[in-house]
Please model this.
Amino acid sequence: MKRLEVSRLMLDMLEYHRGDFHRIGHAQKVLDFVRLIAELEGTGEKARKLLECAAILHDIGIPEALRIHGSSAPPFQEREGERVAGEILAGYDMDEADRRWIREAVGAHHSPEKVEARGIRILFEADWLVNIMEKKLAASPAAAAELRGRYFSSPSGLRVFDILFGPPEP
Ligand SMILES: [Fe+2]
Model:
């Protein structure tokens, strides 16, 4: 069985989303911000690797949520995502606690109330940075301020947010 490596998991994700360049690009962007924020926050190598794996897989449940439930609403994609992530990770020789952590991170990444308990604040903020860019959600200073206050609290997440979308008005 293969050993868990970020690059191998990336190939699995590319394969799973083959042909869907938007989803592939989204996962790559979230991975990149996760890596940046984790490095700036000094999480340490182990935590960063787990966060990177979770970032690669975070939206893996969307196709199955659409197929089974006809909707990619957060509860459906979290549920199916946790399952599909488990299926993909089953191909790896890895620590059981790590496997469960990544699965549960995928299964909670849209649930603000679970972010702190699961230790996935960096993934949550990285996903929001990318969603805000892709969907142009920070179209006005007021909209940016609202998003900043609602979803961001890590010093490095806030720093990146302010570079991308402008600092809060004085
Ligand atoms: Fe996402």
Summary: The pocket of fe (ii) ion is lined by residues 26, 30, 58-59, 127 (CB under 6 Å). The two ends are 55 Å apart (CA to CA). Residues 21-41 form the longest helix (21 residues).
